[in-house]
Amino acid sequence: MFEKNLNEAARKSRQRLLISLMFVVILILGGAVVFLLTQAALTPSSTSPQVEAEEQDTATPASQGPVDQATEPTSEKVIQSRSSGEVVQAISRYEQELEPTIKSDGFNNWDAALRSDFSARQDKLIAHLANGETDIAFEEANQLIADASAAVLGFEAAFDEAMSDARTAYEADDFTGAEIPVKRALELKPEDSLAFELADRIKKLPEILDIMEKARIARVENNLEQELKLSSQIIQIDPRRTLYQDRINEIEILLTERRFETIVTAGLAASQAEQLKALNNAYEQARLLYPKREETQNLAALLVELKRKLTFRQFVKQGDTAIREDNWKTALDLYQNAVAFYPDNAEVQETVILSQKIVQYSKEIGGFLQDPNRLSNVGVRKAAEQTIEAADLYTSMSPALANDLDQLAKEIVRQNTEIEVLVFSDKLTNVSVRGVGKVGLVDQYKIRLKPGDYIFEGKREGFRTKSVRITISPEDRQVKVTVVSDERI
User: Fold this and answer.
1) Which of 130, 214, 415, 455 is the most exposed place for a label (fewest CB within 10 A)?
2) Other C-beta atoms within 10 Å of 140: how many?
3) pTM higher than 0.85, yes or no?
4) Pairwise CA distance, residues 43 & 45, whole Å
């Protein structure tokens, strides 16, 4: 824009200057001719014109020196001390550094008259430059830069003051006091991001103030959940309100503590009520919040103890069921598991001992009944009788034991009831019962023997020994055996 105006003004100025120079040259030439003619007429010497011409020549350079612009004849060309390039450079500086601000809408809103003045002064100095008046143009350009710089500083100061007032009012939560200066700031700099951001925050201030009041009421009422919700809304709208972020952190800690206390209380109640699942849930929640807290460790201990107690009771309960079912072997296993949890429980210890005795006697009696024939043996019979005597104390608690004991007693009687045995021989054979005694030389002999296996032997001189094996059953009424040694050697 400047180059175009400058070229146009220069073109017109050159035309005017050319005409003026031609007119000046004509005047100078005419004056010179008149002067020479006059001198020639007044000086008769042939050498005078030459001397005067020489004096005129030597005087001419002196007249070309610096001449005060005020005293210089208007008909002569004024020599400028500033070049057009310097002026152009000054004007370019103005256009690059200051003019964008001055020509902005915001500057116009700030001082439209000053903006018009700068524009007129700019056109004026361009005209001076186009007319070749570089010194005047340079001086005016510098003055324009100085005045424009001061104006721009004033403009920036006005913007900064508006922003400062808006921020101060906003920080004081004064919506009205903030709205006016921020509008002024946007009038000065509509595209300024900071002003736009501040205006946006101020626009939301009524909403924030409403939420802040609700948060205050919630705090007075100790409604931490509601206060946390409202404080979070405030931070979401305006993250710069760090006090509310601090309050959020504080509330979260308070709510966590409150929740922890509730969890611990619930855990203690669950422990008292022996609710294993509820206690376990309480412990897990407490462990997630504060794993190293003493209360958490207490819940862990209560959980272990409750598991131990309930497991113990379960074993005892199952053991009692086994006893009612007269299954003392199972009962013994269950009570031994129970006593592992509470070794000092006297009742359980007694039940274990009782179960052991009943299981032991049942096993011993079962052993006798498994091979009842042995009961005819004196030693085996005595051992069985001793077992019966010792086990009789426990028969009232175990019908199965009582039944086995009764069966053993009967079996002892059966196995020790003597059965009549008729021995037939030839009176030549000496008959004996191995392990029992001699029968002698008989042709028929009656003896009584207990049920069992016996070997009758018959011996005779010159004949092979005759052995006859018989089995006497408790069910037998009479057993016959013939023993005759009649096979010669």
Assistant:
1) 455
2) 21
3) no
4) 6
- What does the DSSP assignment read for 359-403? HHHHHHHHHHHHSGGGGGSHHHHHHHHHHHHHHGGGTTT-HHHHH
Tell me how crowded residue 205 is: count the other CB atoms within 10 A of its CB: 20
Task: Give residue-wise pLDDT tens across range 18-44.
Answer: 433 343 333 344 444 334 443 444 444
Inter-CA distances, 358 with 108, 305, 367, 393, 397, Å: 115, 32, 14, 10, 9
Does residue 2 contact residue 126 with C-beta atoms inside 8 Å?
Answer: yes
- For the chain, the first-to-last Cα distance in angstroms comes to 164
DSSP state of 429: S
Could you tell me which of 199, 94, 206 has the C-alpha nearest to residue 144? Answer: 94
Taking the CB of residue 211, how many other CB atoms lie within 10 A of it? 19
Helix axes 294-324, 242-272, angle to 10 degrees: 20
Reference 266, options 240, 299, 289, 294; nearest CA is 299
Tally Cβ neighbours within 10 Å of residue 408: 23
Structural tokens at position 281: 């849930």
Q: Could you tell me the CA-to-CA distances from 426 to 144, 429, 434, 478 in Å, in that order?
A: 172, 6, 19, 21
- The angle, 0 to 180 degrees and rounded to 10, between the axes of the packed helices 134-171 and 84-93 is 10
* Side-chain half-sphere CA neighbours of 205 within 13 A: 21
Enter the tokens of residue 180: 């006016």
Bridge partners, residue 457, by sequence:
432, 467
> What is the pLDDT, as a whole number, of residue 78?
63
Q: Lay out the sheet containing 478-482: strands in order across.
A: 444-449, 419-424, 478-482
